[in-house]
Amino acid sequence: MFKLRRFLKKYKLQLIIGPLCKLTEAVFELFIPLITADIIDNGVANNDVGYVLQKGGLMVLLGALGLGFALICQKSASIASQGFGTQVRNAMFRHINSLSYQEIDKFGTPSLVTRITNDVNQLQLAVAMLIRLVIRAPFLVIGALIMAMTIDLKISLIFLVASPFIALVLFLVMNRSVPFFKSIQKKLDEVSLIARENLSGNRVIRAFSKQQSEEQRFNEKNDALSRSAVIVGKISALLDPLTYVIAQAAIIAVVWFGAKFVFHGSLMSGQIIALVNYMTQILLAMIVVSNLVIIFTKAFASAARVNEVFETEPSVKETNRKEIAVDEKSPAIEFRNVSFAYEKNGYALKDISFQIEKGSTVGIIGGTGSGKSTLVSLIPRFYDAAEGEVLVNGNNVKDYSFSQLRNCIGIVPQTAVLFSGTIKDNIRWGKKSANEEEIARALKISQSYEFVSKMPDKTDSMLIAGGKNLSGGQRQRLTIARAVVSQPQILILDDSASALDYATDAALRKSLKEETKGTTVINVSQRVGTVRYADQIIVLDKGKIAGIGTHNELIDNCGIYREICLTQMKEEEVRNR
Asked: 109-138: buried (b, 16+ CB within 10 Å) or exposed (e) per residue?
């Protein structure tokens, strides 16, 4: 948690004023039992109403001042804790966005969501308690012991005996419960993962009638979380009764021995009341300390998870933020002996080499898991090659700034992702300044213009999160429109027509060829019909290049490509005419 103290630098004033105000309130609180004793021994005993009112007024004044200081402390704690939480969340979100796909895959989306919400909330609470109670509670324990000693040293020995027993109970309860707090956060991640999978994949679950099995899976994880919470609750539930038993026994002892001292005249009845009040203050302060231990235990567990995110360095780093010159005569894209592995124990791509000329259309085809999406992910540097070089316009992609590299590349991902907002807003992700004419052109190229124009609000029609109010094919076409609106130098279509019918797919390819002249188009697909008329086709098999050439060349020279073709069309349809 100390590593996160940098986020508190702006709140040094609150970190000083808050605890000082709470300390002042605690000092006033320690004087109350002495005034109470004075009222009983001098005012009540002598039937002096004026003295009682005078001292009573002093108590009210101390209470009012204490309330004022407490409110100042509370405001300081709120400003510091909320500001701290806001800064941590902003910094985490910014850092997560700097991570490459590899690191995000490692953490998982549900875990990152839990860390940026639940874990940061735990840290906020810890900061608030740090300001409000960390100094006050121990000060009250020590102060009450000292004040008890000033009244009577012999009676205060009862306090010295009772306090270690209360502390022992706190230690035993905390020692047993702390491990559960750490495991609860991990189990919360698991519950979040299943919940997210079920919400995002609800249609698939219903299609396969898996509601009951998914409910059972969720219930198992949720029950495990619940059991841990119940165990912690049972252990923590022992805290109050055990500490109260010890404290009440101490109070009985104070009254028992105090009565004898009062009988012998060495103590007064008001002093006994004061001693009882100090014992109660110690008990309450000890309970506060125990709650602080729980809060800070959770906070340290959360801080470790938050720091794990901050300490994770992106594997893909921007080494240059300046724009570099490009070679117009060089190939648009070149792979030189490129290999890539997601894990250490196996390559997803191995020794890939090829060139793609500017303005050409290239198809990439291969079986499931052959490395097609991985290959095109290396071009915009979503991942870095483990070996070899990836070049765009004659320069290694590592030499570009992210903005320069990705501004010249239009990408349509395999999964069509749209955001809540209007259709127009989503298309302008590709080009912020796109006017109505450019948006209409992009819609026409992507074969979206017809269905968008039939909507009541046309391009101002609202999309719900993920574009779930559209069909799969409509979502894919709008993501293509978003990519082509900026007229990129390189357009990557990663299996982005899989939900389109053959007629729409053919119309899309024709439109792209006619309207994006000069653009280098890379079409990743498992459909032969989508890639067969490309200028060049790259065939992948198990992460290696099985063949490169035109459709007819590959039919003659690449057995894997021929096999793919024959699974999708008849023998007489195989060759281009």
From this structure: ebbbebbbebbbebbbbbbbbbbbbbbbbb
Is 80 exceeded by the pLDDT of residue 175? no
Bridge partners (DSSP) of residue 335 are: 354, 390
* φ, ψ (nearest 5 deg) of residue 262: -65, -40
| pLDDT at residue 534 in the model | 86
| Least confident residue range of 128-137, 153-162, 355-364 | 153-162
φ and ψ at 456, to 5 degrees? -55, -40
Q: Among 322, 370, 328, 325, which Cα is nearest to 349's?
A: 370
Whats the size of the chain, residue-wise?
A: 577
Q: Which fold has domain 2-311?
A: ABC transporter transmembrane region fold (1.20.1560)
Q: Which residues of 324-356 are buried (b: 16+ CB within 10 A; e: fewer)?
A: eeeeeebbbbbbbebbbbeeeeebbbbebebbb
Pair type for strands 421-422 and 462-463:
antiparallel
Query: What's the pTM value of the predicted model, to 2 decimals?
Result: 0.72
Domain with CATH 1.20.1560.10 in the chain: 2-311
The residue type found at 127 is V
Confidence of residue 234 (pLDDT cuts 50, 70, 90): confident
Express as a percent the part of the chain with pLDDT over 70: 97
The overall average pLDDT reported for the chain is 83
From the list 58, 3, 53, the residue with the least C-alpha distance to 34 is: 58
Q: Under a CB-based contact definition with an 8 Å cutoff, are residues 110 and 116 in contact?
A: no
CB 452 within 8 A of CB 458: yes
- Could you report the per-residue pLDDT of 420-469, keeping only the tens digit for each? 888 888 888 888 888 888 888 888 888 888 888 888 888 888 888 777 77
Closest CA to 183 of 102, 31, 304, 314: 304
For the residues 154-159, what does the mean pLDDT come to? 79
404's enclosing H/E stretch is helix 402-407
CATH superfamily, domain 329-408+524-572, is: P-loop containing nucleotide triphosphate hydrolases (3.40.50.300)
Cα 403 from Cα 490, distance rounded (Å):
14
Q: Is 144 within 8 Å of 30 (Cβ atoms)?
A: yes
DSSP state of 92: H
The answer to whether 96 and 112 have CB atoms below 8 angstroms apart is yes
Q: Residue 540: beta bridge partners?
A: 366, 545
Distance CA 358, CA 207 (A): 44
Give yes or no for residue 577 having a pLDDT over 60.
no
pLDDT of amino acid 344:
66
Question: What's the mean pLDDT in 356-370?
Answer: 86
- Scanning the structure block, which residue is given the tokens 């070996």? 387
Q: Where in the chain is the domain with CATH 3.40.50.300?
A: 329-408+524-572
